[in-house]
Each structure stands twice: as C-alpha cells, then as structure tokens.
Amino acid sequence: MSTFKALRIDKDDAGYRAAITQFDDADLMEGDVTVRVTHSTVNYKDGLAITGKSPVVRRFPMISGIDFAGVVESSQHAEFKPGDQVILNGWGVGETHLGGHAQRARVKGDWLVPLPAGLSAAQAMSIGTAGYTAMLALMALERFGAKPADGPAIVTGAAGGVGSVAIALLSRAGWHVIASSGRPQEKDYLHHLGASEIIERAELSAPGRPLGKERWAAGVDCVGSHTLANVLAQTKTHGAIAACGLAQGMDLPATVAPFILRGVSLLGIDSVMCPKVKRLEAWNRLAHELDHAKLAEITTTISFDEVPETARAILEGHVRGRVVVEIA
Do residues 231 and 303 share a domain? Predict the structure, then answer.
C-alpha cells in the first residue's frame, strides 16, 4: 500500500490538532523492520499526546500510540522474519518516532519483543505499556526484597490501567493490597481484582505531614505529586515504593524524612528505555502470571475511529482498566 490509515498529530501556525487521516508510506521513519499493526491501545500518555495537554510529542507530524502489536511484513533484522508476531512498548514511539495508532509501523528490530506463547495480539495490547509497567514495578519490589509478610502494599490510581494490573499481580503474589481510588463506584471492580481494602483518593492527594503513621510496606504509585509524598510518609520502616506515574503531577512536594528516618526507598520505574532482557522477563511473566479471565474483564475494545474520543476520556478519569484498539 502507498498510504495507510493513521492518527496524525500536527502543530503549526494553525495550532495543535490530531486527526485520523491517510499517511504516506514513503514518510515512515528509519527502521529495519516494517510491521502490519493489528492492535494498539490508549494509555494516559497517549491521551496527553493526542490532546496536547502535555508536551509528550517532540516532533511533527507525529503518529500517536506508544504501543502496538502486529505481524512483521519485512525485516532486515536477524531476529525477525516476515510473519512473526511482535509487540512494541516505548522507545520513544508516539513521541519522537512515528507510533502505533496506524495500520503500519517501521521501527528498529531491537525495540521489538516476540509475542509470548499463550497471548494473542489483542491480549498483549490489553496488557500494553500499563500492564508491562505494573510488572516492572512488581519485579523492582521483588529485587528490593519486599515480600507480603512485611505488610500491606498500596496501589494508587487503582482503577486506571497500571493500577488495575498492579492490583491483580500483587494479589496473586500474596500481598494484602490497599487500593487508593477517587472513584467510589469502582469498589466492587477493585475488590474483584484482588484489593483487600479501598481508601479514598482524598486521604492522600492533599498536602500532608513529613511523616505519618506507618501503614504499608510496599506500593506502586501511578499518581505522583502530593499522593506520592503522602505514600512515602506513611511507608513502614525499610519499605519501598515503586513510582511509575504522574496523573496528579510531576512534582514531589516531600521531605527527606521518610528516607533518612525510616530508610524508605523510592524505586523509579522506566518502561520507555527499559533494557530488552527485562522486557522479555516482564512479558514472559505476564503471559503466565496474569489471570486471563480478569484481564478480559478489565478490558474495553474500541475501533480505530474512537481513539481521539477515548484519549480525552482517559484524561478526565472516565476510563477504567485497559483499552484495546482494533487497527486491522
């Protein structure tokens, strides 16, 4: 095909805009593997990119979509051949390199991961960067040495994509999970995923004290700002929090008190430039450790044409769990 369908983002004298249009195959960026995209997803970062609410996109025009799954059409990379099913998360795709909200993508083969046995392309995108990030957070807590016997684990932004998968993974690993959410209507949903307790987002989202009562031994924070500061202030001595989101803000209005008085550790989770060896471990674990029935229950499937509307909805907090985009 000489052109293909894509969600193109432009910024010029006419302003910032995103629209589904035809994109010329000749304008694809450099790469040694071309993929026919079958599925993608809509993450919080995609919402920021498509709406322009945050400077996620670094070049224009851009095709949005930090994730995709599909089938290799052509390859000059030793690890991949035509017909292989592959996944991509991160590496600046949808930010500095044309992304996955398109029928076709050309990328570096080093960025790709083979679709794990036992997962379909749709299931892989149901997991997406959100679920992959949640697994990276669990792996970081495990490497730190955190274990369920130490006490509860807190998950903030619990009804979102990362939070939903983090609850399911932590619960399966034996943790007593405390879910923090601003959506009281999602109480049954969060309990079904594996949360043992649910606390209101307001308990953590306002400015707090340097130190509070010790409440949890570990956690996954998807929110940042005052929420992360309060989570750290209420973490048990020698506990650890994995931080992977900024839904409330990029700031961290905290003090050093949790770190120097309780020995609390803050573990940063980078899903974008994560080394391939960790990606392979995360995806293989997700294929075997994530309950596929629960994955289906937290997933909504949309058409390509619904992506712009869904991008706005995810920023407004109207999307729970995961969204799969059928591209083909």
Answer: no
245 and 147 co-located in one domain:
yes
What CA–CA distances, in Å, run from 96 to 49, 153, 233?
A: 11, 35, 36
Tell me the C-alpha distance between 225 and 207, whole Å.
9
Which of 248, 268, 288 represents a domain boundary (last residue)?
268
| Alpha-carbon gap, residue 27 to 212, rounded angstroms | 54
Give dist(CA 152, CA 169) in Å, integer. 14
Q: In degrees rounded to 5, what are phi and psi of residue 88?
A: -135, 135
Q: Give the burial string for 85-96 (b: 16+ CB within 10 Å, else e).
A: bbbbbbbebbbe
Q: What is the pLDDT of residues 124-179, one digit of tens each?
A: 999 999 999 999 999 999 999 999 999 999 999 999 999 999 999 999 999 999 99
The Cα diameter of the chain in Å comes to 62
